[in-house]
Design goal:
Elements lengths: L2 H18 L3 H21 L13 H16 L6 H17 L5 H15 L12 H6 L2 H12 L3 H28 L3 H19 L21 H29 L4 H27 L1
Length: 283
């Protein structure tokens, strides 16, 4: 459905809701729009879709997107104000099953149209040498000139010069992106990051380019998820160790007195960690 057609249908829905004084349908539609747009942004960035069936909230999914971009480029796509408002509205929506305040409905659609304004560049585009040096023409000239003079001194010098120019340009682009998001600048930021990575692994003043823009992003789980998995791992280890001690106590009853306290501590620790995991992550 085209955005203009969707907006027209949304206007019709607003008129109907104003007449009936029932705004729940408008709220549900707004949350669906918001969810679909966030999911679309994540997929375009090469991330997995939001796990709705596992109860992953829109807020949590946005955290994952921000974490990935911060890890790769030091960028934040969703501002702290956006995230705070999203968390509040989504929490209230889930708690009341769609019966949110009129002011929150307005804020909900404001969040949606903020997301509509975010344009993601084509990250399936294949990288090439010409793409990387397009924004810095002097890099290609320096690379060709110095590499034609095969001394180690020249190779080291050109690599240092190129690395400095790339870092300088990347800093400029990052600063511009923080002031105002722009899809072309975002793409340039990815290219410069790949250039910097290439220079750090090739010390002859040359670029080694492979794959697509999306292939050169490192996707990592949020820190919160990582902590959750660590807790779950320690809990599993405690259970295995506890079972092993139980077997020892069964086969060697004489050790029951000394192993009993150890077993109690291990199982207690495991139970505590699982409770924390269930309360903070699984629930």
């Amino acid at each position: 459905m085209k955005l203009t057609t969707m907006d027209d249908k949304l206007k019709d829905l607003i008129r109907i809701c104003k007449k009936t004084k029932n705004y729940k349908k408008l709220t549900v539609v707004g949350m669906i729009f918001l969810s679909n747009r966030v999911n679309e942004i994540g997929v375009k960035l090469g991330m997995r879709p939001r796990k709705k069936e596992n109860g992953e909230t829109i807020y949590r999914y946005c955290i994952m997107i921000n974490t990935t971009l911060e890890t790769n480029f030091g960028l934040t796509l969703f501002s702290s104000a956006f995230m705070k408002l999203l968390k509040e509205i989504e929490h209230f929506f889930l708690k009341t099953r769609g019966d949110i305040l009129l002011t929150q409905i307005t804020e909900l659609y404001d969040l949606y149209y903020q997301l509509r304004a975010i344009e993601i560049p084509d990250l399936t585009k294949t990288l090439s040498r010409s793409d990387l040096i397009n924004g810095l023409p002097d890099l290609g000239v320096m690379s060709t000139f110095f590499s034609s003079h095969g001394s180690t001194h020249n190779e080291t010098m050109v690599n240092n010069v190129l690395a400095f120019r790339v870092a300088q340009k990347e800093h400029e682009v990052t600063k511009q992106l923080k002031e105002q998001y722009d899809p072309d600048l975002f793409e340039r930021k990815i290219l410069l990051s790949q250039m910097k990575h290439s220079l750090s692994h090739h010390h002859e003043g040359k670029f080694s380019i492979e794959g697509t823009l999306r292939d050169n992003m490192v996707y990592q789980r949020s820190v919160e998820h990582t902590v959750g998995y660590v807790l779950l791992g320690i809990f599993t280890l405690a259970c295995v160790l506890g079972i092993a001690i139980l077997f020892e106590m069964v086969f060697y009853p004489a050790l029951s007195a000394s192993l009993g306290m150890i077993l109690f501590l291990i199982l207690g620790l495991g139970g505590l960690l699982f409770f924390i995991y269930w309360k903070e992550f699984m629930r």
